[in-house]
Amino acid sequence: MTLTNSSCRWIVLLAVLLVASLYDWQTEVVGVIWSERIEIAAGDAQVGPWRMNRSEFHYVDDPTVAMDEDGSVGVVWADQTRHDLFFQRYSPDGEKRFTNPVGVSRSPDVFSWLPRLVLNDGDSGEVYVLWQEIVFSGGTHGGEIFFARSSDGGETFHRPVNLSNSLAGDGKGRLTRRYWHNGSLDLALGAGGVLHAAWTEYEGSLLVSRSVDGGNSFSTPMRIAGGITGTPARGPSIAVHEQMVFVTWAIGEDESADIHFSRSLDGGQSFEPPRVVVETDGHSDSPKVAVDTAGTLHLVFAESPAGLFERYHIRYMRSGDGGRTFQGLQTIPNPHPLHFESGSFPSLGVAGNDRVYVLWELFLNRKSRSRALGFTYSNDGGESFAPPALLLDIANPALSENGSRQGMLMRKLAVNHGGVLAVVNSTFRRDESSHVWLLLGRLRANK
């Protein structure tokens, strides 16, 4: 008997489902009600050789998501064929707001990659987007950090502005001289509507900039870590609580890298010297940080006990004293479901002062692309976590591999204080199709 490609895919999927049930993993998230998946975008799935901005890339990818306190959801993604970022907004019940998605980057001759998105809860309906534009400014690597804002809820966007203006390859998070991830950047909204942006350069610096006027202008970028003579910073994540701004990041060129941390007590005008959050024997990477309504700081990251490029798992810890100390270090989950050797690149969300949500990529082996998404949550402020689950509706072997072809440093999870959550993902089946998906969820009553 000859199996078709489709039959093989479903056999693999059924095997994954069986294995998950044998290893305390769920095929359904206990305590969470999910909507049917929503297709955000679809496209071809063709990747030609790298020829800078003349490369023949034809696929959709790089989704990111944000949510306001009313449950309205915004999604931004990249359409590589059109060299643009697009925005769409959804009501809490999953109905799209705009007949056609809205263009954000408006640079059809230049690739735009790996955005971050913020929705303002104010009455003015601001939408803020930060991304990596593959501009070749004369340095060894192309990349600049661009920002655009909308004042009408996302119906239109103002002209993008370049926040970095450097030759250093902005937006690249270097692991080694020959291996890096694009999308090494983040954006957060703080007290009084102050915007905080962070990014790294291929050359190694971690820079921050802020806007006190709703994105009309930004401060001169300030270096808070990294540099040509030191280890390169990568994968920054920002969280804000009142006048405190917290930044975490990983480092490259180090087989036993740890997660680094700095904070500002004056709304981002100055930062304390960087320090290591926790020293471990393994290689730590891709941190995400979030702060709850009580001011507790939550941190997740990936760690490989055997070192760089080996098998990773997700670790969690928190700080109840404004980032002075961290405690509660634990691994979530342990073990991986059989056939998945590694879990990395987490996303993190918090709701209220006791709910913590974690999403991460799952890899069949150390050299494969991500094929699934793991998910869990805590109802007791991170003391314990629910049994992990696979989000099979938007990430499974039958859909082929996950996207993120330009780098895995992304933010795929959003929650609001009411515990409503949204997850995005892209999938890619070479020479057939690519997709961007959205999944909406909420906790069941009394959970």
Please provide a written account of the structure:
This protein is mainly beta. It has one domain (5-443): Neuraminidase (6 Propeller), CATH 2.120.10.10. Helices cover 4% and strands 45% of the residues. It contains 1 helix and 34 strands. Strands 1, 2, 31, 32, 33 and 34 form a 6-stranded antiparallel beta sheet that branches. A hairpin with a 4-residue loop joins β6 and β7 (84-90).
Summarize the structure.
Helix content is 4%, strand content 45%.
Q: Which key features would you list for this structure?
A:
447 residues, mainly beta, Neuraminidase, four-stranded antiparallel beta sheet, 1 helix, globular
Topology:
Elements: H1 5-22, E1 32-34, E2 38-43, E3 46-47, E4 57-58, E5 60-67, E6 73-79, E7 84-90, E8 102-103, E9 112-119, E10 127-133, E11 144-150, E12 161-162, E13 172-176, E14 179-182, E15 185-189, E16 195-200, E17 206-211, E18 222-225, E19 233-241, E20 244-251, E21 260-264, E22 275-276, E23 283-291, E24 297-304, E25 313-319, E26 327-331, E27 342-351, E28 355-363, E29 370-378, E30 389-390, E31 401-402, E32 413-415, E33 421-429, E34 433-443
Antiparallel strand pairs: 1-34, 2-34, 3-4, 5-6, 6-7, 7-8, 9-10, 10-11, 11-12, 13-14, 15-16, 16-17, 17-18, 19-20, 20-21, 21-22, 23-24, 24-25, 25-26, 27-28, 28-29, 29-30, 31-33, 32-33, 33-34
